[in-house]
Specification:
By secondary structure, the chain is α/β, with parallel strands linked by helices. It contains 11 helices and 12 strands. Helices cover 40% and strands 18% of the residues. The structure holds beta-D-fucofuranose.
């Protein structure tokens, strides 16, 4: 067993030193299943590299994997918490390759930094499935990606805002917008910001008067919103958009502390992403205008991909998008009872 491991890392080292970038012609990586070195059971060994615990969305997403890839259903799930560190995530992939798991699911914090690790996985014959955010690696180096259309989510947010202004005969108003963004380099951030900006730019009288990164966390959002409120007169703010619900909750705390009124029962229009149960509560309470759903239930889609690969089928697509809706303060009370995360 040790011999095999040494041989594997020797190959990895030689490829690494030679700076060899393999460019297979196939669209899908050819997977030569290596004999499992570490496991002596009938389970399918799935390594999951998670981002961390930055949000309610993430908790729901981790639970979903844990409820899907259970021993009863034939899986041994090795869950690795990336602890919000991209370096730790890359190291986790190397560890899983060394353990010779059957599949690696990676939910990357950022898109960059994955080339080498993904190539090693391919060399070792371990299929990599990317979920949630994406990786900036040739798509023939991993099996498939599944997750949300973040750009579309950004567009939906502005569509909602346009409709709301029109319903209230406010479509010609000049708007000052504050934007709270997620991690730099994360697909969820670049996609949502891209969609938002594309649609905001169409309005000559709309302006982003402040924007800040709060890494998708509530605490950081509260801090940056407090700073923004120190620098910008709250009366000048018409809309706050946060790229996830937790950052909006943080921003709300900052606004409450300064007695700034917001939400459908206040002044500032508030829009965020994810549609957590807590967001539904805020919509029902007249604090949040709208939340653009981001579906955290990705495990079923990942499992479908794995099952196809197990049957030896070729995947027809590289990208598997998940369905999502838009909720607002007008329809929230109708849907809140179905929201369990
Ligand atoms: O919106 C946010 C989270 O990548 C879709 O990351 C995910 C985002 C989600 O922590 O709450």
């Amino acid at each position: 067993m040790r011999k095999k491991i040494i041989m594997f890392w020797l190959v990895v080292l030689i490829f690494g030193l030679a700076g060899c970038s393999m460019q297979p012609e196939e669209k899908e990586p050819e997977i030569v299943r290596s004999e499992s070195l570490e496991f002596d059971d009938d389970f399918l060994h799935i390594g999951l590299i998670q981002t961390g615990k930055e949000s309610g969305w993430r908790d729901a997403n981790s639970n979903d994997y844990q409820e899907t890839f259970t021993k009863e259903r034939g899986y041994d799930l090795i869950y690795i918490d990336g602890n919000s560190s991209p370096e730790r995530q890359v190291k986790a992939m190397q560890d899983l390759i060394r353990q010779q798991v059957d599949y690696i699911i990676v939910q990357p914090i950022v898109e960059y930094g994955w080339d080498e690790a993904v190539e090693f996985a391919q060399e070792a014959g371990i299929p990599v499935i990317v979920a949630d955010r994406q990786i900036a690696v040739d798509s023939d180096k991993y099996m498939a990606w599944t997750g949300s259309d973040f750009y579309e989510e950004g567009c939906k947010a502005i569509q909602w805002l346009e409709d709301y202004l029109e319903e209230n005969d406010r479509q010609d108003e000049a708007l000052n917008i504050v934007l709270l963004e997620g991690n730099e380099g994360a697909t969820a951030t670049t996609g949502r910001t891209g969609g938002l900006m594309k649609r905001i730019e169409k309005h000559g009288n709309w302006k982003i008067i402040a924007s800040a990164c709060a890494n998708f966390t509530q605490g950081e959002a509260q801090t940056v919103m407090e700073q923004i409120l120190n620098e910008v007169d709250p009366d000048q703010i018409d809309v706050v958009i946060a790229e996830n619900d937790n950052m909006m909750f943080g921003a709300m705390k900052a606004m409450e502390r300064k007695n700034v009124s917001f939400g459908p029962e206040g002044d500032i229009i508030t829009i965020s992403f994810d549609a957590l149960r807590e967001a539904f509560e805020k919509m029902v309470d007249g604090k949040l205008h709208a939340s653009i759903e981001c579906n955290p239930h990705l495990a079923a889609s990942v499992e479908k991909i794995i099952k196809k690969l197990e049957r030896g089928e070729k995947l027809k697509k590289k990208c598997y998008y998940i369905e999502e809706k838009v909720y607002d303060f007008k329809n929230a009370s109708q849907y809140i009872k179905d929201r369990n995360y």
